[in-house]
Every structure is written in structure tokens, then in C-alpha cells.
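Hey team,

Filing this mostly as a record. A colleague (T.K.) asked me to run one chain through the structure pipeline before their review meeting, and I want the input and output archived in the tracker in case anyone asks later how it was produced. No errors, nothing strange. Just documentation.

Input sequence:
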Amino acid sequence: MFHRIVLSLTIGSLTVAAALSAAAQADYGKISVRRAFYGSAEEGPDRVIEVTSAVSSQCDGKAACSFKCSAQDLKVYNPNPSHPKTCTVSFHCGSETLQTTVVSAGTRATLNCSNP
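Output structure:
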């Protein structure tokens, strides 16, 4: 959701409101990864690895990014060999509401923060 600023009638307020609106637009398009996990959550907490750092290094500050959900590409060990796994990534687009993306291992996850 994008918030609009109501402009005041005074010239000083108009300048400030325009600057706030431009700042809000500039901030919206940047990905900020909060948490990322790889593994088989349904198998138990010891079958999941936190991969926030790996995903953040590829995606933070970009308008969009894509990465392969695999132990090899995320440079981690396989927490549950021979079992299905997923990547779960929670991220913000600027100051917007937290979004979560879940993809199956072996596929590409795409995070996208384009203007609403």
C-alpha cells in the first residue's frame, strides 16, 4: 500500500510534503530480507537451516532478485538428505508490510519490490 500525503496550503508545507512523498517512493522499491530458512520444517526444527545472510547478500537493496533454492547455491549443508525441502523468505519492500515467499528446493525464488 502506498500512502499519499495531503498537501497544506502554505508554501513551506508543500515543499516538505513533496520531499516526503519522493522519499517514500524511493524507499518502496528496495528489498530488505528479514529471515530466510532452507530445509524440511515439517520434519522438525533440527531439519531447517537459517540462510538469512546468504539471501540478504544477494537481494538486499535491489528492486528484484532471484536465487536457486538449493544447499549448493546457498552454500549450506543439506539438513535432511532424501527428503523434500523448501526455502521460506520473509522480506519488506521498503517500509511496507512483511511478505513471505515459499518455494520448493531445486526451483528459483523471486523477490520483487516494484511500485504498487
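Quick notes for T.K.: The longest strand covers residues 31-39. The beta strands are 31-39, 48-50, 64-68, 86-93, 99-104, 108-112.
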